[in-house]
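Readers of this paper often ask what the protein records in our data store actually look like. Below, we set out a record of this kind in full and without editing:
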Amino acid sequence: MPHPIQIERRTRWLGPALAAVALALLLAAPAAAQSPGNDAPAPGPDDVANAPNQAGPTDGIPPAPPSTGADVAEDYFGPMGSEVDRRLVGPVQLLRSGRLSRGRTTIRLPLYRGHTSTGRAFWYILTDTTDRDNAESLGLNHSPKLHYSEVDSAVRGGRITRRGLVVDGHGSVNFEPRRRVVAGEGANAFPPRVNDPGSVGSRDYTPLVRIRNAGYHVYNAPIIAGNLPADRLRFCNGDVNHDLVHDRVVKVCPNEKGDGGTVTIRTTPIFSFARPALYISMDSSDPVTAALDEATVAPALADVPTGADDGAFSAVERLFPIINGPEGRDNPQRQGLNSAIRDGLAPLQVIGGIPTVALDYSPLWDVNLGQWTQNAINRGYRARINDEFQYLNLVRLGHITGPNGSRFGSTGIVVNCPIVHRFL
């Protein structure tokens, strides 16, 4: 059965260092109801706005329908520009290998079965690759930056064989732990007092694989289930056993041959350069982040260098959580980690470049944590942020700092969150 998140609020200060880690790491709201099925037709804006497990109707994700304030129904409006030219305004589905649900709260992706070189099977998805041609062919995201992720243990080697992908070593994921988060009290709902992730990778587990006999390209291949036969993994109608699969999986349906199928994964709303978008959170180098974001602990991702952003040979883009943004379920300015835990909605994080918006996209995000200063709050400056440069300007002006007035910058934590869709 799915694991409920347990939240208790108790006053306990864990110290600035742990607070900085814990506060940085809430990248999605607590689990909510499952979304509508994936076989439904493409959604209209009203369907998306009122979908479960998504930002609420006051959140501004997705945008209001063009018929708002007009004298004609939405059906009278012509197609969006991106339906003619993907370079124009959205909506644009970026991870085109999958099918978005009616509410766009989940995406159904192809499911693959691979093996380690020690003979253990595992089930995985593909989301990103350095191979531009294969990205186009398979509907994956193209991310040249992943070429620079092969530092120490961050990328495993692999090869294509007659039975599919075989990766080096015996890196695996244990999906049996029960995800549990116990939050604190006070002005900030963090740091959490207990952070138990629901899935934990071995020390040599990483979702990144460089395939030696396929052009030496790097693929993002997160594991969603371990060494299981297809019949034990068949939850085609939901009611998934999260002792067996990734916590963000809401349906999984292997085929009869037991070598593939489909898997449905919950999405998270975010902002990139003022555009509302979606990604899926799969892995984190840090257990606190993994617990808060329903992700797998992937320790080897900690070997990916952080702090360089778009400098030479950087494998990461930046993600900008805010601790103490405006709160209130009906507040149109709502945002942040405190709100996510108190209001039960997504924190609406700001991220860097995504495909079709910037050239420097990577599914590996370097977590940069910020906090509004009390002076900025007293002056009424605190509001929702939806753009990286808007955020950085607030840092430059001193209105946002690191936790508790510390220097703003990288926490050193890497999260694997492939982009799925942009609404604008």
